Amino acid sequence: MKTIAIIPAKGNSIRIPGKNCKILGDKPLVAWTIEFANKLYEKELINDIILSTNSKEIEGIAGDYGNSNIIIHKRSEEFCVDNVTNLGVVREIAKGLNGYDYILLLQPTSPFRKIETFKRLFVDCVPTNNGNWFIRSYYHQKGLLFEYIEDIVPLKTYAGIIYRTGTFYLYSKAFIKDLKYKELRTFVTWHEAININTQDDWELAECIAERFKI
Q1: Which of 81, 87, 113, 121 has its CA 20 to 30 A from that of 136?
Q2: Which residues does 207 contact at the CB level (< 8 Å), separation at least 6?
Q3: Is residue 36 pLDDT above 70, yes or no?
Q4: What is the DSSP code (8-state) at residue 121?
Q5: How much is the average pLDDT of 135-149?
Q6: Can you name the residues that pair with 6 across neighbouring β-strands?
């Protein structure tokens, strides 16, 4: 089974200007995700890495922190406006891809991922058939790490207990084509659940990077 990782990293950001290039800990924010994707590739857990960007500076960061296997997708300005979702970017890139079974979306706003969590997601959660499904990561308030939960109970039932995160999205090829799906849920640790969208998020991430030396 072939898995392609896509890192969407546009140059412009409204709430935190230049966010993807801003230094978190000892490296730019986007570099954390690039290095994580490199590790997955080196361990043969994924087959290819695509970095989608409209920024020469981010391309340079990929050169500094990435391996030579990273493919640069030059994103058009049409797909850099605020109302375009990362899934929209993934679907646009997928039109030009052949021979893949899964697409792994790695958003730079979640810098503290662990290889062990990805292994659990991929080994324990991926269905045996390539049907219409996608896996989304969640954080459990009590820190529980279930293997996965099928989307049979409305999310509002868990209000205040589990929370959506942007840590991992794994899409089947069938889902990418027609968006008809069953959602599967996997869980991540609280460090991994950090999603940097505001200045408060950034300051929390700085504390984590410094205190825990992640």
Answers
A1: 81
A2: none
A3: yes
A4: I
A5: 70
A6: 50, 105
The dihedral sign for the CA sequence 200, 63, 53, 37:
negative
15 by DSSP, 3-state: which? coil
Query: Can you name the residues that pair with 104 across neighbouring β-strands?
Result: 5, 170
64: its two tokens: 């500094």
Residue whose structure tokens are 């361990």: 43
Q: Using one digit for the tens of pLDDT, what is the confidence trace for 83-116?
A: 678 888 888 888 888 888 899 999 999 999 999 9
User: What pLDDT, on a 0 to 100 scale, did the predictor assign at position 55?
Assistant: 92
Residue at 175: amino acid letter? F
Note the pTM of the prediction, 2 decimals.
Answer: 0.88
Which residue, among 27, 39, 36, has the nearest Cα to 7 in the 3D structure?
36
pLDDT over 60 (residue 71): yes
Instruction: Read off the DSSP letter of residue 88.
Output: H
User: If we measure between CA atoms, which residue out of 214, 108, 192 comes closest to residue 145?
Assistant: 192
Please name the residue ranges forming H helices in the chain. Answer: 29-42, 56-65, 86-94, 115-120, 173-178, 190-193, 199-211
What separation in angstroms does the CA of 4 have from each of 40, 54, 145, 200?
11, 20, 25, 32
SS3 of residue 109 by DSSP:
coil
- What are the φ/ψ torsions at residue 175 (nearest 5 degrees)? -65, -45
Tokens of 168: 């991992």
